[in-house]
Automatic annotation (TrEMBL):
Compartments (UniProt record): Membrane
Identification of the protein by name: Putative cytochrome P450 72A
Family: Belongs to the cytochrome P450 family.
Top-level taxon of the source organism: Eukaryota
GO (cellular component) term, any one: membrane
Keywords: Heme, Iron, Membrane, Metal-binding, Monooxygenase, Oxidoreductase, Transmembrane, Transmembrane helix
Cross-referenced InterPro entries: Cyt_P450_sf (IPR036396), Cytochrome_P450_Monooxygen (IPR050665)
Primary location: membrane
Annotated transmembrane regions: 6-30
PANTHER family according to UniProt: CYTOCHROME P450 72A11-RELATED, CYTOCHROME P450 FAMILY MEMBER
Highest classification ranks of the organism: Eukaryota, Viridiplantae, Streptophyta, Embryophyta, Tracheophyta
Keyword Transmembrane helix listed: yes
Amino acid sequence: MELIYKLSAAVSCGIVVVILAWRVLNWVWFRPRKLEKYLRQQGFDGNSYRLFFGDGKEMAMIIKEAKSKPINLSDDVVPRMVPVVHKTIQNYGKNYFLWLGPTPLVSIMDPDLIREVLNKNYHFQRPSGGNPLTKLIASGLIGYEGDKWAK
């Protein structure tokens, strides 16, 4: 009898571990790779997904490099103010994606595509979820949707 309890507890724990491992693997690897494939099919270009950090290390290096160089008053300020965006546009064009961990950040600078996204706002919604503390503290105009936004 005692053996049955131990065996059922071990099987239950094993199932829980497998489910959690699958969810983590899906969150960290399968879903980002699938999103990358869809974005490339839609004509976006960017770095390939890197496990856990995405483009974080490269972005930090680009920002550090941009801030280390002196700037004159006659120089272009864009490479200094937004070095990651500037470098990414040079490498991949105006429609690109960056990886913020396992989440892609899609940037659209084509006026026709921007118009399409803004006209079809129910097709292109912001992702829900995120940090609950941020939702509680930063519930300003940018966080509103629907009727609250219309006011």
